[in-house]
Amino acid sequence: MTDLVIRALDEREAPLFDALPDPLGARESHRLTRHRPDWKRVALRDGKVVARGAWWGGPDDTAPVNVNWFDVAEGEEEAGAELLRTAPWQVELEMNLPAGWREDPELRAAAKARFTAVQKAGYELLVERFLYRWTPEHGLPERPGRLEFRPEPDDAVFFDLLRRIHSATLDAHALKAIDEDGLDRAAQEELDFFHWCPSPREWWQIAYTPQGEVAGIHIPAHNPSGPCIGFIGVVPEQRGQGYAYDLLAECTHYLVERGAEFVSAATDRGNFPMAANFAKAGYPVVRERLNYRPLHAG
């Protein structure tokens, strides 16, 4: 087998990235994603692309925050692994797959090849997630009307509520942050992310019961690809009353009232209560995502 050549691309060579087949539909799923040419890398054998990766970050980021497009040609898992191993950025990797990919033999085989390459490169699976996309034909979820929603300008209030919510969470990323650095780290990561989003800070809201007790928070947001359900969280002492659905319904209405023509969302595959709320609110699963983390990040 001839030697492998791995290199980054520039604007002139950008079409080279598209030379590899796309059996998992990554191109369509990234229709609204802007990738920088110099954050794209390819592995070539005899001048032919056998693996590719696109690293992604926000418009003002000086380094990528993740790899969100990774492909390998059939039988080239080691080339894909080398592409990831030699990259200057060791960051989380997101692999987006068609909904129901496990039931299709061809999709399953293509996904397995990519899983193998990612694991060979020193990544481990963190979590599997459902990706949702609400559009108007699904109808707006009914507002139950049980809670009152108010903005709160003080980040310290949100920080305290995020700590309380994450003290009993099913979210794998929050659990990872708690394991590494405690509840403060998990809460701060959430705050940092929503400040990073281009949507207004004044959109963040706290939900109250008729008795004036805090029930939870919802954060409608825009990420660089468009409107999304940023965060839904019920404080531990108010759980068991179905308030997560109330928060989700309000968050959806809030975004639509501000012009959203679609709303994206995600939840961990193992978070059965939240998955059920998305289904009830008319959010179909459009893709599935596997999040991998590098074991030897620098």
Question: Ends: how far apart?
Answer: 31 Å
Helix content: 25-40%
Instruction: Tell the overall outline.
Output: elongated
Number of β-strand runs: 12
Average the pLDDT over all residues and give the rounded result.
94
Largest sheet: 8 strands, mixed
The number of helical segments is: 8
Radius of gyration: 20 Å
Structural class: alpha+beta
Q: Runs with pLDDT <50, length 5+?
A: none
What pattern of helices and strands is seen along the backbone?
A: EHEEEHEHEEHHHEEEHEHE
Strand order of the largest sheet: 1-2-3-4-5-12-6-11
Beta fraction: 25-35%
Entry summary:
The protein is of the alpha+beta class.
What would your notes on this structure say?
With 298 residues, the chain is α+β, with helices and mostly antiparallel strands. The protein contains eight helices and twelve strands. Strand 2 (40-45) and strand 3 form a beta hairpin. The chain is elongated. The model has no long low-confidence stretch (mean pLDDT 94).
